[in-house]
Amino acid sequence: MGFKLNLITVLTVLIVLGSCKNKKQKQSAIIETTQTKYYAEPYRPQFHFSPEEKWMNDPNGMVYHEGVYHLFYQYYPDDIVWGPMHWGHAVSRDLVHWEHKPIALYPDEHGMIFSGSAVVDKNNTSGFGSAENPPLVAIYTYHLMEGEKAGRTDFQTQGIAYSLDNGNNWAKYEGNPVIGNEGIKDFRDPKVMWHEASKKWVMTLVAGDHAKFYGSKDLKKWELIGEFGKDNGAHGGVWECPDLIPMKVEGSDEEKWVLLISINPGAPNGGSGTQYFVGNFNGNTFTTDQKETKWIDWGTDNYAGVTYSNTPNDEIIFIGWMSNWTYARDTPTEKWRSAMTLPRKLLLNKVNGSYQLINYPIDELNTLVKTNKKKEIKIEAGEVETIQFDNINQSEVKFHTSLKDLRLTFLNSLDEKLILSINAENSLFLLDRSKSGKIDFQEDFGKEIQQIPLANLPNEYFEFRIILDQSSIEIFINKGQYVMTAQVFPNENYNRLTIENLSQEQILLKSFEIGKVSRIWK
Ligand code: FRU
Which fold does the domain 365-517 belong to in CATH? Predict the structure, then answer.
Protein backbone atom coordinates (compact mmCIF):
# COMPACT_ATOMS: atom_id res chain seq x y z
CA MET A 1 0.00 0.00 0.00
CA GLY A 2 2.75 2.34 1.08
CA PHE A 3 4.68 1.47 -2.01
CA LYS A 4 1.62 1.94 -4.22
CA LEU A 5 0.89 5.31 -2.69
CA ASN A 6 4.43 6.33 -3.13
CA LEU A 7 4.42 5.26 -6.73
CA ILE A 8 1.18 7.14 -7.35
CA THR A 9 2.62 10.20 -5.64
CA VAL A 10 5.76 10.03 -7.71
CA LEU A 11 3.73 9.51 -10.87
CA THR A 12 1.44 12.42 -10.02
CA VAL A 13 4.40 14.63 -9.27
CA LEU A 14 5.94 13.62 -12.58
CA ILE A 15 2.71 14.26 -14.44
CA VAL A 16 2.25 17.62 -12.73
CA LEU A 17 5.86 18.49 -13.40
CA GLY A 18 5.49 17.27 -16.94
CA SER A 19 2.40 19.32 -17.58
CA CYS A 20 4.05 22.32 -15.93
CA LYS A 21 6.95 21.89 -18.22
CA ASN A 22 4.64 21.58 -21.20
CA LYS A 23 2.73 24.63 -20.11
CA LYS A 24 5.95 26.54 -19.73
CA GLN A 25 7.08 25.48 -23.14
CA LYS A 26 3.75 26.40 -24.61
CA GLN A 27 3.82 29.74 -22.86
CA SER A 28 7.27 30.57 -23.98
CA ALA A 29 6.36 29.42 -27.47
CA ILE A 30 3.47 31.86 -27.44
CA ILE A 31 5.66 34.66 -26.14
CA GLU A 32 8.20 33.85 -28.77
CA THR A 33 5.73 33.90 -31.63
CA THR A 34 4.21 37.19 -30.54
CA GLN A 35 7.70 38.56 -29.98
CA THR A 36 8.97 37.49 -33.32
CA LYS A 37 5.96 38.82 -35.16
CA TYR A 38 6.30 42.41 -34.05
CA TYR A 39 9.23 44.31 -35.50
CA ALA A 40 10.85 41.15 -36.80
CA GLU A 41 10.73 41.65 -40.57
CA PRO A 42 14.02 41.37 -42.47
CA TYR A 43 16.16 44.48 -41.83
CA ARG A 44 13.84 45.78 -39.11
CA PRO A 45 15.96 47.87 -36.71
CA GLN A 46 15.77 46.35 -33.22
CA PHE A 47 16.89 49.34 -31.19
CA HIS A 48 16.51 52.28 -33.54
CA PHE A 49 13.24 54.10 -34.05
CA SER A 50 11.32 53.15 -37.18
CA PRO A 51 7.61 53.61 -37.91
CA GLU A 52 5.38 50.55 -37.61
CA GLU A 53 4.68 50.77 -41.31
CA LYS A 54 5.01 52.99 -44.39
CA TRP A 55 7.31 55.84 -45.32
CA MET A 56 9.24 58.06 -42.93
CA ASN A 57 11.84 60.77 -43.46
CA ASP A 58 13.05 63.72 -41.34
CA PRO A 59 12.63 63.92 -37.56
CA ASN A 60 10.38 66.88 -36.74
CA GLY A 61 9.13 68.85 -33.74
CA MET A 62 11.48 67.24 -31.24
CA VAL A 63 10.49 68.68 -27.89
CA TYR A 64 10.56 67.54 -24.27
CA HIS A 65 7.59 68.37 -22.06
CA GLU A 66 6.46 67.02 -18.70
CA GLY A 67 8.63 63.93 -18.73
CA VAL A 68 7.93 63.07 -22.35
CA TYR A 69 10.25 63.27 -25.35
CA HIS A 70 8.18 63.80 -28.46
CA LEU A 71 9.41 62.62 -31.82
CA PHE A 72 7.36 63.76 -34.79
CA TYR A 73 8.47 62.78 -38.24
CA GLN A 74 7.79 63.26 -41.93
CA TYR A 75 5.31 60.51 -42.68
CA TYR A 76 3.30 59.20 -45.61
CA PRO A 77 0.74 56.72 -44.25
CA ASP A 78 -0.31 55.24 -47.60
CA ASP A 79 2.89 53.93 -49.15
CA ILE A 80 6.53 53.04 -48.54
CA VAL A 81 7.71 55.82 -50.85
CA TRP A 82 7.53 59.56 -50.21
CA GLY A 83 4.06 61.10 -50.73
CA PRO A 84 1.79 63.77 -49.22
CA MET A 85 3.49 64.54 -45.94
CA HIS A 86 1.95 64.27 -42.48
CA TRP A 87 3.61 64.48 -39.08
CA GLY A 88 3.80 60.99 -37.57
CA HIS A 89 4.25 60.90 -33.80
CA ALA A 90 5.97 58.78 -31.15
CA VAL A 91 6.85 59.42 -27.51
CA SER A 92 9.50 58.21 -25.10
CA ARG A 93 10.45 58.74 -21.48
CA ASP A 94 14.09 57.73 -21.90
CA LEU A 95 14.81 58.28 -25.63
CA VAL A 96 15.46 54.54 -25.85
CA HIS A 97 11.99 52.94 -25.77
CA TRP A 98 9.28 54.43 -27.98
CA GLU A 99 5.52 54.31 -28.04
CA HIS A 100 3.68 55.00 -31.29
CA LYS A 101 0.98 57.66 -31.29
CA PRO A 102 -1.66 58.58 -33.86
CA ILE A 103 -0.69 60.93 -36.69
CA ALA A 104 -0.40 64.46 -35.26
CA LEU A 105 -0.73 66.73 -38.29
CA TYR A 106 -2.60 66.09 -41.55
CA PRO A 107 -2.35 68.07 -44.78
CA ASP A 108 -4.97 70.82 -45.14
CA GLU A 109 -6.05 73.50 -47.65
CA HIS A 110 -2.63 75.23 -47.34
CA GLY A 111 -0.74 72.08 -48.33
CA MET A 112 1.16 69.09 -47.01
CA ILE A 113 3.00 69.29 -43.71
CA PHE A 114 6.73 69.48 -44.31
CA SER A 115 9.51 69.60 -41.73
CA GLY A 116 9.62 71.92 -38.74
CA SER A 117 10.01 72.17 -34.99
CA ALA A 118 8.03 72.46 -31.76
CA VAL A 119 8.43 74.54 -28.60
CA VAL A 120 6.89 74.74 -25.16
CA ASP A 121 5.40 78.25 -25.03
CA LYS A 122 6.06 78.57 -21.29
CA ASN A 123 4.80 82.15 -20.95
CA ASN A 124 1.84 81.52 -23.23
CA THR A 125 3.08 84.27 -25.57
CA SER A 126 0.85 82.85 -28.31
CA GLY A 127 -2.25 82.97 -26.13
CA PHE A 128 -3.18 79.44 -27.28
CA GLY A 129 -3.05 78.11 -23.73
CA SER A 130 -2.86 79.63 -20.27
CA ALA A 131 -0.20 80.34 -17.66
CA GLU A 132 -1.20 77.10 -15.88
CA ASN A 133 -1.33 75.06 -19.06
CA PRO A 134 1.24 76.40 -21.52
CA PRO A 135 0.74 75.17 -25.08
CA LEU A 136 3.05 73.10 -27.21
CA VAL A 137 3.39 74.96 -30.50
CA ALA A 138 4.51 73.28 -33.71
CA ILE A 139 5.98 75.43 -36.47
CA TYR A 140 6.21 73.75 -39.88
CA THR A 141 6.27 74.29 -43.62
CA TYR A 142 3.20 74.02 -45.81
CA HIS A 143 3.92 72.67 -49.27
CA LEU A 144 1.11 73.33 -51.74
CA MET A 145 1.40 70.71 -54.47
CA GLU A 146 -1.09 72.48 -56.76
CA GLY A 147 1.13 75.58 -56.64
CA GLU A 148 4.25 73.61 -57.48
CA LYS A 149 2.50 71.78 -60.31
CA ALA A 150 1.27 75.09 -61.74
CA GLY A 151 4.91 76.20 -61.98
CA ARG A 152 4.61 78.86 -59.27
CA THR A 153 7.47 79.61 -56.86
CA ASP A 154 5.45 80.62 -53.79
CA PHE A 155 4.11 77.21 -52.81
CA GLN A 156 6.03 76.86 -49.51
CA THR A 157 4.74 78.88 -46.56
CA GLN A 158 5.02 78.50 -42.78
CA GLY A 159 2.19 77.45 -40.49
CA ILE A 160 1.66 76.75 -36.80
CA ALA A 161 -0.48 74.40 -34.72
CA TYR A 162 -0.85 73.94 -30.97
CA SER A 163 -1.63 71.28 -28.41
CA LEU A 164 -2.99 71.77 -24.90
CA ASP A 165 -2.72 68.13 -23.84
CA ASN A 166 1.01 67.43 -24.23
CA GLY A 167 0.89 66.54 -27.89
CA ASN A 168 -2.11 64.21 -28.04
CA ASN A 169 -4.39 66.56 -29.96
CA TRP A 170 -3.40 69.39 -32.25
CA ALA A 171 -5.33 72.37 -33.58
CA LYS A 172 -4.11 74.40 -36.52
CA TYR A 173 -3.99 78.19 -36.06
CA GLU A 174 -6.79 79.82 -38.06
CA GLY A 175 -4.46 82.66 -39.14
CA ASN A 176 -2.19 80.28 -41.11
CA PRO A 177 0.07 80.72 -42.94
CA VAL A 178 2.06 82.86 -40.51
CA ILE A 179 4.81 83.53 -43.05
CA GLY A 180 3.82 83.82 -46.70
CA ASN A 181 6.10 83.46 -49.68
CA GLU A 182 7.22 86.12 -52.12
CA GLY A 183 8.63 83.75 -54.68
CA ILE A 184 11.35 81.65 -53.06
CA LYS A 185 11.05 78.12 -54.41
CA ASP A 186 12.81 76.36 -51.51
CA PHE A 187 11.63 78.14 -48.39
CA ARG A 188 11.24 75.74 -45.52
CA ASP A 189 11.99 73.77 -42.36
CA PRO A 190 11.52 76.37 -39.57
CA LYS A 191 13.46 75.70 -36.35
CA VAL A 192 12.31 77.92 -33.51
CA MET A 193 13.99 78.74 -30.21
CA TRP A 194 13.45 81.24 -27.41
CA HIS A 195 16.24 83.85 -27.42
CA GLU A 196 16.40 85.03 -23.83
CA ALA A 197 18.79 87.97 -24.38
CA SER A 198 16.40 89.70 -26.80
CA LYS A 199 13.27 88.22 -25.23
CA LYS A 200 11.85 86.91 -28.45
CA TRP A 201 11.36 83.78 -30.49
CA VAL A 202 13.90 83.26 -33.25
CA MET A 203 13.14 81.12 -36.27
CA THR A 204 15.85 79.82 -38.58
CA LEU A 205 14.55 78.99 -42.02
CA VAL A 206 16.31 77.93 -45.20
CA ALA A 207 15.82 79.68 -48.52
CA GLY A 208 17.59 77.61 -51.19
CA ASP A 209 21.22 78.61 -50.72
CA HIS A 210 21.11 80.46 -47.40
CA ALA A 211 19.44 80.72 -44.02
CA LYS A 212 17.02 83.45 -42.98
CA PHE A 213 16.27 84.48 -39.39
CA TYR A 214 12.89 85.72 -38.26
CA GLY A 215 11.88 87.17 -34.89
CA SER A 216 8.53 87.09 -33.10
CA LYS A 217 7.01 87.97 -29.74
CA ASP A 218 4.03 85.63 -30.05
CA LEU A 219 4.91 82.88 -32.61
CA LYS A 220 2.24 84.35 -34.93
CA LYS A 221 3.68 87.60 -36.32
CA TRP A 222 7.19 87.20 -37.69
CA GLU A 223 9.65 89.69 -39.13
CA LEU A 224 12.84 89.06 -41.08
CA ILE A 225 15.86 89.96 -38.93
CA GLY A 226 18.88 88.41 -40.63
CA GLU A 227 20.41 86.20 -43.29
CA PHE A 228 23.45 83.98 -43.50
CA GLY A 229 25.35 81.73 -45.79
CA LYS A 230 25.20 82.60 -49.50
CA ASP A 231 29.00 82.57 -49.53
CA ASN A 232 29.67 80.15 -46.68
CA GLY A 233 30.13 76.41 -46.53
CA ALA A 234 29.07 73.73 -48.97
CA HIS A 235 26.61 74.58 -51.74
CA GLY A 236 26.52 71.37 -53.74
CA GLY A 237 22.76 71.17 -53.21
CA VAL A 238 19.79 72.89 -51.65
CA TRP A 239 20.00 73.91 -47.96
CA GLU A 240 17.49 72.14 -45.72
CA CYS A 241 16.59 71.55 -42.06
CA PRO A 242 18.56 74.22 -40.18
CA ASP A 243 19.14 74.33 -36.43
CA LEU A 244 20.71 77.17 -34.42
CA ILE A 245 22.12 76.04 -31.08
CA PRO A 246 23.89 77.97 -28.31
CA MET A 247 26.77 75.87 -26.96
CA LYS A 248 29.54 76.15 -24.39
CA VAL A 249 33.00 75.06 -25.47
CA GLU A 250 33.94 72.05 -23.33
CA GLY A 251 36.33 72.87 -20.50
CA SER A 252 35.90 76.65 -20.81
CA ASP A 253 33.35 79.44 -20.43
CA GLU A 254 33.46 80.33 -24.09
CA GLU A 255 30.02 80.52 -25.66
CA LYS A 256 29.45 79.90 -29.32
CA TRP A 257 26.51 79.30 -31.62
CA VAL A 258 26.37 76.29 -33.88
CA LEU A 259 24.31 76.33 -37.05
CA LEU A 260 23.43 72.95 -38.57
CA ILE A 261 22.51 72.94 -42.25
CA SER A 262 21.60 69.79 -44.14
CA ILE A 263 22.38 69.82 -47.83
CA ASN A 264 21.20 67.59 -50.63
CA PRO A 265 23.14 66.66 -52.70
CA GLY A 266 26.71 67.69 -51.99
CA ALA A 267 27.71 65.61 -48.94
CA PRO A 268 31.35 64.44 -48.73
CA ASN A 269 30.49 60.80 -49.49
CA GLY A 270 27.65 61.55 -51.91
CA GLY A 271 24.04 62.66 -51.76
CA SER A 272 22.62 64.03 -48.52
CA GLY A 273 24.63 65.22 -45.53
CA THR A 274 24.73 67.74 -42.69
CA GLN A 275 27.31 70.51 -42.40
CA TYR A 276 27.78 72.82 -39.45
CA PHE A 277 29.11 76.29 -38.77
CA VAL A 278 30.51 77.53 -35.47
CA GLY A 279 30.13 81.27 -34.92
CA ASN A 280 28.11 83.94 -33.15
CA PHE A 281 24.48 85.01 -33.07
CA ASN A 282 23.66 88.58 -32.00
CA GLY A 283 19.92 88.13 -31.71
CA ASN A 284 19.37 88.97 -35.38
CA THR A 285 21.91 87.18 -37.46
CA PHE A 286 24.64 84.57 -37.45
CA THR A 287 28.27 85.27 -38.39
CA THR A 288 31.35 83.08 -38.59
CA ASP A 289 34.96 83.27 -39.66
CA GLN A 290 35.02 79.53 -40.32
CA LYS A 291 36.74 78.79 -43.62
CA GLU A 292 36.52 75.03 -44.01
CA THR A 293 33.34 73.01 -44.44
CA LYS A 294 32.59 70.83 -41.40
CA TRP A 295 30.35 67.77 -41.29
CA ILE A 296 28.55 66.38 -38.29
CA ASP A 297 28.70 62.83 -39.69
CA TRP A 298 30.78 61.62 -42.62
CA GLY A 299 28.61 58.63 -43.51
CA THR A 300 25.99 58.51 -46.22
CA ASP A 301 23.07 57.92 -43.85
CA ASN A 302 22.52 60.72 -41.39
CA TYR A 303 20.39 63.50 -42.82
CA ALA A 304 18.03 66.29 -41.76
CA GLY A 305 19.07 65.88 -38.13
CA VAL A 306 18.17 68.55 -35.58
CA THR A 307 18.13 68.84 -31.78
CA TYR A 308 15.53 68.64 -29.01
CA SER A 309 13.93 71.73 -27.56
CA ASN A 310 13.49 72.21 -23.79
CA THR A 311 15.57 69.24 -22.61
CA PRO A 312 16.32 68.67 -18.91
CA ASN A 313 19.70 70.21 -17.91
CA ASP A 314 19.89 71.89 -21.34
CA GLU A 315 21.41 68.76 -22.81
CA ILE A 316 21.75 69.00 -26.57
CA ILE A 317 20.29 65.87 -28.10
CA PHE A 318 20.36 65.22 -31.81
CA ILE A 319 18.50 62.68 -33.96
CA GLY A 320 18.93 62.34 -37.72
CA TRP A 321 17.11 60.46 -40.44
CA MET A 322 19.22 57.38 -41.20
CA SER A 323 18.97 57.53 -44.98
CA ASN A 324 20.02 59.43 -48.08
CA TRP A 325 17.79 60.88 -50.77
CA THR A 326 19.99 59.18 -53.41
CA TYR A 327 18.44 55.79 -52.61
CA ALA A 328 15.99 56.33 -49.74
CA ARG A 329 13.04 55.24 -51.87
CA ASP A 330 14.78 52.05 -53.06
CA THR A 331 16.08 50.35 -49.93
CA PRO A 332 14.99 46.68 -49.66
CA THR A 333 12.34 46.83 -46.93
CA GLU A 334 8.70 46.08 -47.58
CA LYS A 335 6.47 47.08 -44.72
CA TRP A 336 8.11 50.35 -43.72
CA ARG A 337 10.94 52.49 -44.97
CA SER A 338 13.82 53.94 -42.99
CA ALA A 339 14.80 54.59 -39.40
CA MET A 340 16.28 57.33 -37.21
CA THR A 341 19.88 57.42 -35.97
CA LEU A 342 20.48 56.67 -32.32
CA PRO A 343 19.86 59.78 -30.21
CA ARG A 344 23.21 61.50 -29.77
CA LYS A 345 24.46 64.05 -27.32
CA LEU A 346 26.24 67.02 -28.91
CA LEU A 347 29.26 68.74 -27.35
CA LEU A 348 31.51 71.46 -28.71
CA ASN A 349 35.26 70.94 -28.44
CA LYS A 350 38.17 73.12 -29.41
CA VAL A 351 41.01 71.00 -30.77
CA ASN A 352 44.24 72.74 -31.85
CA GLY A 353 42.34 76.00 -32.16
CA SER A 354 39.59 74.50 -34.31
CA TYR A 355 36.00 73.97 -33.14
CA GLN A 356 34.65 70.46 -33.49
CA LEU A 357 31.13 69.31 -32.91
CA ILE A 358 31.13 65.97 -31.11
CA ASN A 359 28.21 63.57 -31.37
CA TYR A 360 28.02 60.42 -29.28
CA PRO A 361 25.16 58.09 -28.27
CA ILE A 362 23.31 59.19 -25.14
CA ASP A 363 24.29 57.28 -21.97
CA GLU A 364 20.80 55.76 -21.57
CA LEU A 365 21.56 53.47 -24.52
CA ASN A 366 24.15 51.65 -22.41
CA THR A 367 21.28 49.99 -20.56
CA LEU A 368 20.61 47.92 -23.70
CA VAL A 369 24.12 46.52 -24.04
CA LYS A 370 25.11 43.21 -22.47
CA THR A 371 28.83 43.51 -22.73
CA ASN A 372 31.22 40.60 -22.64
CA LYS A 373 34.29 40.91 -20.50
CA LYS A 374 36.87 43.46 -21.49
CA LYS A 375 40.13 42.07 -22.68
CA GLU A 376 43.28 43.10 -24.38
CA ILE A 377 43.93 41.83 -27.89
CA LYS A 378 47.46 41.79 -29.28
CA ILE A 379 47.82 41.25 -33.01
CA GLU A 380 51.23 40.80 -34.54
CA ALA A 381 52.16 42.45 -37.85
CA GLY A 382 50.35 40.71 -40.70
CA GLU A 383 48.24 38.57 -38.34
CA VAL A 384 44.47 38.25 -38.09
CA GLU A 385 42.27 37.89 -35.00
CA THR A 386 38.91 36.24 -35.61
CA ILE A 387 35.92 36.73 -33.34
CA GLN A 388 32.79 34.60 -33.69
CA PHE A 389 29.66 36.29 -32.41
CA ASP A 390 26.13 35.15 -32.93
CA ASN A 391 24.30 37.99 -34.74
CA ILE A 392 26.72 40.85 -35.03
CA ASN A 393 23.79 42.76 -36.54
CA GLN A 394 22.59 43.56 -33.06
CA SER A 395 25.81 44.33 -31.30
CA GLU A 396 28.27 46.86 -30.04
CA VAL A 397 32.03 46.55 -30.53
CA LYS A 398 34.34 48.78 -28.54
CA PHE A 399 38.09 49.05 -28.14
CA HIS A 400 40.90 51.56 -27.78
CA THR A 401 43.80 51.80 -30.16
CA SER A 402 46.13 54.33 -31.73
CA LEU A 403 46.20 55.30 -35.39
CA LYS A 404 47.58 52.14 -37.04
CA ASP A 405 46.83 50.26 -40.28
CA LEU A 406 43.98 48.01 -39.34
CA ARG A 407 41.13 46.30 -41.16
CA LEU A 408 37.93 45.12 -39.51
CA THR A 409 35.66 42.90 -41.57
CA PHE A 410 32.16 41.81 -40.60
CA LEU A 411 31.28 38.57 -42.42
CA ASN A 412 28.49 36.05 -42.79
CA SER A 413 28.41 32.50 -44.18
CA LEU A 414 27.50 33.84 -47.63
CA ASP A 415 30.86 35.59 -47.57
CA GLU A 416 29.22 38.98 -47.62
CA LYS A 417 31.46 41.53 -45.96
CA LEU A 418 31.34 44.99 -44.57
CA ILE A 419 34.86 46.35 -44.37
CA LEU A 420 36.16 49.13 -42.15
CA SER A 421 39.77 50.18 -42.36
CA ILE A 422 42.23 52.69 -41.03
CA ASN A 423 44.94 53.97 -43.30
CA ALA A 424 47.44 55.55 -40.92
CA GLU A 425 49.74 57.08 -43.49
CA ASN A 426 46.96 59.09 -45.12
CA SER A 427 44.99 59.51 -41.87
CA LEU A 428 41.86 58.00 -43.37
CA PHE A 429 39.03 55.94 -42.05
CA LEU A 430 37.26 53.94 -44.76
CA LEU A 431 33.99 52.04 -45.05
CA ASP A 432 33.40 49.69 -47.95
CA ARG A 433 29.91 48.24 -48.32
CA SER A 434 30.34 47.12 -51.96
CA LYS A 435 30.13 43.43 -50.94
CA SER A 436 28.10 43.88 -47.78
CA GLY A 437 24.89 42.19 -49.00
CA LYS A 438 22.07 43.65 -51.09
CA ILE A 439 23.45 46.64 -52.93
CA ASP A 440 21.95 46.52 -56.40
CA PHE A 441 18.59 48.11 -55.54
CA GLN A 442 20.21 51.40 -56.61
CA GLU A 443 23.36 51.98 -58.63
CA ASP A 444 25.16 54.32 -56.22
CA PHE A 445 24.49 52.47 -52.98
CA GLY A 446 27.56 50.23 -52.94
CA LYS A 447 29.73 52.12 -55.37
CA GLU A 448 32.01 54.45 -53.48
CA ILE A 449 34.21 53.68 -50.51
CA GLN A 450 33.19 56.15 -47.82
CA GLN A 451 35.97 58.13 -46.18
CA ILE A 452 36.71 60.27 -43.17
CA PRO A 453 39.87 62.39 -43.24
CA LEU A 454 41.12 62.01 -39.68
CA ALA A 455 42.90 65.11 -38.44
CA ASN A 456 43.53 66.24 -34.90
CA LEU A 457 43.21 62.80 -33.32
CA PRO A 458 45.25 62.39 -30.14
CA ASN A 459 48.59 60.63 -30.39
CA GLU A 460 47.71 58.17 -27.67
CA TYR A 461 45.00 55.50 -27.54
CA PHE A 462 41.45 56.56 -28.38
CA GLU A 463 38.12 54.80 -28.51
CA PHE A 464 36.46 53.08 -31.44
CA ARG A 465 32.81 52.32 -30.85
CA ILE A 466 30.82 50.50 -33.51
CA ILE A 467 27.10 49.87 -33.19
CA LEU A 468 25.32 47.57 -35.61
CA ASP A 469 21.59 47.06 -35.95
CA GLN A 470 19.79 44.90 -38.52
CA SER A 471 20.38 47.36 -41.35
CA SER A 472 22.79 49.99 -40.07
CA ILE A 473 26.22 50.67 -38.69
CA GLU A 474 27.26 53.70 -36.64
CA ILE A 475 30.94 54.29 -35.96
CA PHE A 476 32.13 56.74 -33.32
CA ILE A 477 35.84 57.51 -33.30
CA ASN A 478 37.37 59.15 -30.21
CA LYS A 479 34.01 59.51 -28.45
CA GLY A 480 32.27 61.09 -31.42
CA GLN A 481 34.97 63.37 -32.78
CA TYR A 482 34.55 61.57 -36.10
CA VAL A 483 31.36 59.73 -36.92
CA MET A 484 30.16 57.59 -39.80
CA THR A 485 26.62 56.27 -40.18
CA ALA A 486 25.66 53.94 -43.02
CA GLN A 487 22.87 51.58 -43.96
CA VAL A 488 23.74 48.02 -44.87
CA PHE A 489 21.56 45.10 -46.01
CA PRO A 490 23.30 41.71 -45.61
CA ASN A 491 21.31 38.69 -46.84
CA GLU A 492 22.11 36.93 -43.58
CA ASN A 493 23.33 38.32 -40.27
CA TYR A 494 27.05 38.80 -39.89
CA ASN A 495 28.47 36.35 -37.36
CA ARG A 496 32.22 36.79 -37.65
CA LEU A 497 34.56 39.70 -37.20
CA THR A 498 38.12 39.59 -38.40
CA ILE A 499 40.68 42.15 -37.31
CA GLU A 500 43.76 42.31 -39.48
CA ASN A 501 46.96 44.04 -38.57
CA LEU A 502 48.16 45.63 -41.81
CA SER A 503 51.02 47.48 -40.16
CA GLN A 504 54.66 46.54 -39.61
CA GLU A 505 54.40 46.28 -35.85
CA GLN A 506 52.29 44.73 -33.14
CA ILE A 507 48.90 46.37 -32.58
CA LEU A 508 47.27 46.46 -29.21
CA LEU A 509 43.50 46.74 -28.88
CA LYS A 510 42.87 47.76 -25.30
CA SER A 511 39.63 47.01 -23.46
CA PHE A 512 38.15 45.13 -26.38
CA GLU A 513 34.51 44.25 -25.79
CA ILE A 514 31.69 42.95 -27.91
CA GLY A 515 28.16 42.86 -26.58
CA LYS A 516 24.62 42.10 -27.64
CA VAL A 517 22.26 45.05 -27.83
CA SER A 518 18.73 44.21 -26.64
CA ARG A 519 15.72 45.04 -28.71
CA ILE A 520 13.45 47.87 -27.60
CA TRP A 521 10.16 46.65 -29.07
CA LYS A 522 7.79 44.56 -26.98
C1 FRU B 1 14.58 67.07 -46.05
C2 FRU B 1 13.30 67.56 -46.69
C3 FRU B 1 12.88 68.88 -46.10
C4 FRU B 1 11.40 68.90 -46.33
C5 FRU B 1 11.03 67.44 -46.15
C6 FRU B 1 9.91 66.97 -47.02
O7 FRU B 1 14.76 65.70 -46.13
O8 FRU B 1 13.48 67.66 -48.09
O9 FRU B 1 13.55 70.00 -46.62
O10 FRU B 1 10.71 69.72 -45.45
O11 FRU B 1 12.20 66.69 -46.44
O12 FRU B 1 9.50 65.70 -46.70
Answer: Jelly Rolls (2.60.120)
Task: Kindly give the distance from the C-alpha atom of residue 97 to the centroid of ligand 1, in angstroms, as a whole number.
Answer: 25
Complete DSSP assignment for 478-490: TTTTEEEEEE---
CB 447 within 8 A of CB 434: yes
Q: Which atom of ligand 1 is nearest to the CA of 186?
A: 9
Bridge partners (DSSP) of residue 112 are 143
Instruction: Confirm whether 363 is a catalytic residue.
Output: no
Q: Give the residues surrounding ligand 1 with Cβ less than 6 Å away.
A: 57-58, 74, 85, 114-115, 141, 188-189, 240-241, 304
Query: Where are the chain's structural domains?
Result: 2-34, 56-361, 365-517
pTM, 2 dp:
0.93
Task: State the fold for domain 56-361.
Answer: Tachylectin-2; Chain A (2.115.10)
The partner residues of 286 in beta bridges, in order of sequence, read: 281
Express each pLDDT in 425-461 by its tens digit: 999 999 999 999 999 999 999 999 999 999 889 999 9
Q: For the segment 498-522, what is each residue's pLDDT rounded down to a tens digit?
A: 999 999 999 999 999 999 999 999 8
CA atoms within 13 A on the CB side of 403: 17
